[in-house]
Design a protein that fits this description.
The chain is of the alpha+beta class. The chain is built from 15 helices and 22 strands. Strands 4, 18, 19, 20 and 21 form a five-stranded antiparallel beta sheet that branches. Strands 8-7-12-13 form a four-stranded parallel beta sheet. A four-stranded antiparallel beta sheet has the order 14-17-15-16, covered by helices on one side.
Length: 504
């Protein structure tokens, strides 16, 4: 359905708002931000037509009832995440918005091509820095930046990694720039989470908006567990005909334990902890009721530091002694490979476009967000002079921690961060305050704009595959730019449309 004229769209919203009280021009004001559903003139974007038509038939009470049903479903399934610093409890259901975010096919093709390009280049980079280190010798990326990164693992030097696929599961975070074009905000290459919420959101959305879902022509994401299992098995298939894959979790107290158990169940793979493992003669086994069974591939959701107390942190009780020796001997595969975190270090991130050109002789399809390296004196001076306009991040932090959002911080907070920057400038980067796009969300019975980002999931083994869907993370507080679930953000389903007459 083509976009209607501005006056017609606004009048339609006014009629819907006056009769149903959910979507009104007075309430829904994306202001200067790019909005996923509405064009600047107020017209509904074509790929949202089916959803908009369905929403026009629902009263606020009906929408509220559907939201309540969704939340009850999540609660019964145990779909939870830890919200640190909460007043009453830290374990809650993942906040989920009822209304899906929709991406047309043409936009997705560019996203998919850009993510495949990016993961290929990052795998080349990791193979190089743990091998011949040509990119460092050629001065493309500073040596001290790589060797000084907290997640660089010298123990990985010279080790064989199947298919040179260091990054087996990647969750890159994308945002739209001021023109509505997608850019990469950061790469998550260590133990990225969130895919279980993508799958759970899809299951809920298919029930909530069944007619609109079918009319829109949405590409399925339900095959992700099968694709993940195939990717993991491909890492050992050259020498083991039917590799045994396990999911390694830190345990029930981990904030993403639900996801670990969920993926293990869907893949039909055992969920194990370090205490369930035995290492004997550089082979890794799991304890079963029928005795020891050899393991070939470990999809680990445990950070590098904790996987083996003999090699990394000696006080770790989450891993198993001798695991890294078995990995070094080539008798077990660990996915993602230890040491991948150096490639998603926020200072290394600034060099990814150059990394892509170096290894692939191509320009980056998806650009980076402008980034200032505080380790450079001139850039540090600029950051210190503009703290009220910038977002400052620790290079090795994740989950929204260790950062300052300058425009929303107090002067005291900015002063305190300035001291941190002066004391340890190499530990920080800065970026302009990101202008996240907005999408319609159901908030207290009304449909209002909230800021969103996008986390697609990329699998890399014997080939690179991008799941035709993503986790859309939502900043549920009005005006907030913090989308991380660990800090009270939420999520919503993401509909990627197939080619055809559905806004492609």
């Amino acid at each position: 359905m083509p976009a209607t004229r501005s006056v017609d769209a606004v009048e339609r919203l006014r009629i819907v708002g006056s009769s149903r009280g959910s979507l009104t021009p007075e309430r829904y004001r994306p202001d200067r931000f790019y909005d996923e559903m509405f064009a600047p003139d107020g017209a509904v974007r074509p790929h949202y037509a089916a959803l908009e038509s369905r929403l026009a038939t629902l009263t606020p009470a009906e929408l509220a009832e559907r939201q309540k049903t969704l939340e009850q479903s999540f609660l019964l399934q145990g779909i939870t995440f830890t919200v640190y610093g909460a007043e009453n409890t830290t374990e809650r259901i993942i906040p989920t918005d009822l209304l899906p975010r929709i991406i047309p096919a043409a936009e997705w093709r560019r996203i998919e091509a850009g993510l495949i390009q990016r993961v290929r280049a990052l795998n080349h980079f990791l193979a190089d820095i743990y091998g011949d280190q040509k990119i460092l010798a050629d001065g493309i990326v500073p040596r001290e930046l790589v060797f000084g990164a907290p997640s660089y693992r010298r123990e990985m030097r010279g080790l064989f990694v199947p298919h040179n696929a260091y990054v087996n599961v990647c969750g890159s975070d994308l945002i739209r720039d001021g023109k509505g074009e997608f850019a990469v905000l950061e790469d998550n290459l260590r133990v990225p989470s969130g895919v279980s919420y993508m799958l759970a959101n899809r299951d809920a959305a298919k029930r909530t908006f069944a007619d609109a879902y079918r009319a829109a022509g949405v590409r399925p994401v339900e095959r992700y567990p099968d694709l993940l299992l195939a990717t993991l098995k491909s890492l050992a298939a050259d020498w083991r005909p039917n590799p045994q894959v396990v999911v390694m979790t830190p345990g029930v107290y981990n904030s993403a334990y639900y996801e670990h158990a969920y993926l293990a169940r869907l893949m039909g793979a055992p969920l194990i902890e370090g205490r369930d493992l035995v290492v004997h003669e550089n082979m890794v086994y799991m304890r079963t009721t029928e005795g020891l069974k050899r393991i070939d591939v470990i999809y680990r959701r445990v950070d590098d530091d904790f996987i083996d107390p003999l090699t990394f942190r000696r006080d770790s009780s989450l891993g198993i002694a001798g695991l890294f020796n078995a990995y070094r001997a080539g008798n077990v595969v660990i996915a993602n490979a230890p040491g991948t975190g150096v490639a998603d270090d926020k200072a290394v991130y600034a060099y990814v476009p150059e990394i892509i050109r170096y290894y692939l002789a191509e320009d980056a399809i998806l650009p980076n967000v402008e980034t200032y390296l505080c380790r450079e004196p001139a850039q540090l001076s600029h950051v210190l002079a503009n703290l009220d306009k910038l977002v400052v991040k620790e290079v090795g932090a994740s989950g929204g921690y260790g950062m300052l959002i300058g425009p929303h911080a107090t002067q005291a907070q900015r002063d305190e961060f300035a001291q941190r920057l002066k004391h340890d400038p190499s530990n920080y980067i800065a970026q302009p305050t990101i202008q996240l796009s907005t999408a319609p969300c159901l908030v207290d019975g009304d449909i209002e704009p909230r800021h969103v980002d996008l986390r697609p999931f990329i699998l890399s083994g014997n080939k690179v595959v991008v799941t035709p869907g993503a986790l859309t993370r939502v900043a549920l507080k009005r005006g907030s730019l913090v989308v991380n679930s660990s800090q009270g953000g939420g999520s919503k389903d993401t509909w990627v449309l197939a080619d055809g007459d559905h806004g492609a």
